[in-house]
Amino acid sequence: MLNIVLFEPEIPANTGNIGRTCVVTGTRLHLVAPLGFSLDDHMLHRAGLGYWRSLDVTVYQGWNDFLARNELAPDDARLHLLTKKARRTYAESAYADGDFLVFGKESTGIPEELLAQAPDRCERIPMLTDERALKDADAWETPDVAPADHPILRQDICGNFVNPDDYRISALNLSNAAAIVLYEALRQTGFPGM
After folding, report:
1. What secondary structure, in 3-state letters, does the chain show?
2. pLDDT in tens, 113-142
3. Does residue 93 have a pLDDT over 70?
4. Pfam families under this entry (predicted)?
5. Alpha-carbon distance 192 to 11, whole Å?
6. Residue positions in the annotated binding site?
7. Is the dihedral of CA 24, 172, 99, 192 positive or negative?
8. Domain coordinates of the chain in residue numbers?
9. pTM for this model (two decimals)
10. Beta partners for 101?
11. Is domain 3-127+173-188 given the CATH code 3.40.1280.10 in the classification?
């Protein structure tokens, strides 16, 4: 069985969508607190639909609790840390039954200190550069309601966090990123029908 780990997820709909993907693929979901929502959140259950009761999900107090309860070292070979800050792509990685695909929080990803503990476990999803991907950057405008001294991260229609000052995409939508990597891992581990 493969495992998806969401480190401090913030958006309930992403977690619900990922939970639904876990149910239909027989994947276990691990949620590392603090969570940006409650597990009885209406949006979470709406995204997860009727699947949530069938989900194999565990919640942890924090990263160290997750590692301890799963008998993992910070640089364990079963960990795959998905980040923009990796040289190796997810497609260059080898996956095995029991591996953990770790995704960071939507706004900031996996913290630098965790990545630094396991640089050989870091993987990325290739994406176009911002200059090639964002032809409509002027369509996003900074709302007037925030104080001038407070930077704003806005979400585009796909759930990507965008800095309105330089219009840079910080990541794929979390549920899309999880599905991309999970299906490659399932392909490599012989999921039926692939």
Report:
1. CCEEEEECCCCHHHHHHHHHHHHHHCCEEEEECCCCCCCCCHHHHHHHHHHHHHCCEEEECCHHHHHHHCCCCCCCCCEEEECCCCCCEHHHCCCCCCCEEEECECCCECCHHHHHHCHHHEEECCCCCHHHHCCCHHHCCCCCCCCCCCCCCEECCCCCEEECCCCEECCCCHHHHHHHHHHHHHHHCCCCCC
2. 999 999 999 998 887 655 555 555 555 444
3. yes
4. SpoU_methylase
5. 31
6. 82, 104, 125
7. positive
8. 3-127+173-188, 129-171
9. 0.80
10. 4, 80
11. yes
How many CB atoms neighbour CB 54 within 10 A? 13
Q: Residues forming the annotated binding site for S-adenosyl-L-methionine?
A: 82, 104, 125
Residues 80 and 99: beta-carbon distance below 8 Å? yes
